[in-house]
């Protein structure tokens, strides 16, 4: 490992151009810690402290740098021209697209309002803003390097996709529509690259706002808890509105462009129900970036967190986010690149994949998510600050405030979903079908609420499971681990029951809607499950807001601790941080539930694709066939192996951090007495370099496995006269991987969140409080749960949908012909 700034792959870090940070003193009296401080002249508490500038140049993406250099009037004219062209294309495709564009643009202005409101808040005293600058520099530097690596891999994969599509046979439908192999190939690759680009921008937006809002939340916490909560929520709301709006806007533009360019629904051209599968590449590009963002960011943040906790809290007995801990800056940087940037890319992928659903309809989910932007904006604005309660007022429960906003969003989502189904899904063939589909959406909304409640019950320390876990820490580290594992295993039961009821209910409602196909057979069952998925994600923007709230509050607590603010301020940020842990866990549970519903639909779509291509019915997967059973075993193994590699990557990197922090405490004994300065940049460089290297192996496993398995068993099927063997084995692999992945992700996310909040509960003063043996055992549990909840768990639900998308890309037929519903366009 090279020293910071010595030509390592990561941008120059730790070139310690120090800036002064003082403890509650005027910045004009601040004197940097120089040689006299290192020689022991004075005490650290009485002298200014310094933190590193973790970059030597701006890491703002080049596209944003170019936009800022353009004259304001020229930029305005260009934007107006773009809007005119976009609206013209949308109007040529459908008036509904114009409605979607209008809502997206209004949401853009709303996000600008939120940005100005948040940035107008003060950054507090100099010691706060200077610490925030170090966090921002580290986050932007790592983001630039990480996404540079991801973009290179994306271009390589784009070439592979282009090659495959250029050499595959064209289908009769493509030829009838005038789509040759080259046209289909370039459309798929362009969609893939656009999806990857938009997913990366979504990640940057999530990180951009978090590194600017954290210090403002810290400053507001000096005045009141409610103001700090409002700033964190509105900052998260900005990111959520931009991410969801960009996902909707991007798919709408692609749909309208291809609709006009290909002359969809004109005689001799492609049917509108075939159009979504031309956009599968867009969803795959988003999944690709989201997977590596989750892996890289998760490895970064949890390796730094584990290293900081094990040495700082357990061995040295210093508080969390203490400025004496050499890994503290890396830990705070990780919150932004792991939780904010990665989650933004993750939810963008979820919404894009759900809009491009294989039921053949895109306009309906576009309208649903347009209303999502509206109702979530109302929910965000419903959380208001108080006049001036001051620090002496009792701290309100932030979770209750967030839940009230979510309840407002849920009620409005139910109403708007009913309006959407009546508007777009009414048909004279079955006049009451729209009501059945509205009920399917209600099933999805209720499922989302149930997942939020269940996850909150298992991860909030106000409830029995977490308090029981905390109590187990009183008897040692081992019993804490046992209790945490058992809690995580138990927590899979209720979500699975909820998912099962949701799938059966939605399928039955769709099946009995009165819609029939050309042969008179009832249809609409799978479309009912698709509508339920849309319903579950109809409040996605508000759920992402709650998720972004977590890392912003966590960073705010770190800034308060490092700048040594009064204990009353730290109490406020501790409460917000604990609630943030719960909201992050609930968002992950929400994402897993939506992935389960979406994967069921994608799995059915894959079987239909194979049947259409082979002209042979493919309705069942018989696991009694040895090869098919082996495919299921391989799919389950894939989940466990992927999780193992992700967790071991965190472990290996954390070991390097632990060794480095120990080395600094030994070689610089003055650190503990505030007489020497920790080398923060060294830990930043270690986790940055290692996370970029470690994310490759599990990510490659996810991409290559289904293709290799399908290819090998296809060859075996050729020699054993089983032409569909490869497809059946891949179907079995996908089915078992989905089931195992859902259960594993639920276990990892809930156990990790419970361990974290058990530690937070003890830190409130329960069971001996900070520094007690009980607290040290809880810290051990928290470090075990860190890679569970922030690396392996979040990556798994992206993997589940990515596997299904890869299988659809492998198919050669954009079919689903028998599932076309006679609904109004």
TrEMBL record:
GO terms for cellular component: endomembrane system; membrane. It is found in: Endomembrane system. GO terms for molecular function: diphosphate hydrolysis-driven proton transmembrane transporter activity; inorganic diphosphate phosphatase activity. Its EC number is 7.1.3.1. The chain crosses the membrane at residues 70-90, 96-119, 150-167, 187-211, 231-255, 275-293, 406-426, 432-454, 492-510, 522-544, 590-608, 628-647, 699-719, 725-748. It holds the Pfam family H_PPase. The keyword NAD does not apply. PANTHER family: K(+)-INSENSITIVE PYROPHOSPHATE-ENERGIZED PROTON PUMP. Keywords: Ion transport, Magnesium, Membrane, Translocase, Transmembrane, Transmembrane helix, Transport. This is H(+)-exporting diphosphatase. It comes from the Eukaryota. Its main location: membrane. The lineage of its organism: Eukaryota, Viridiplantae, Streptophyta, Embryophyta, Tracheophyta. It comes from Ananas comosus. It is a multi-pass membrane protein. The keyword Membrane applies.
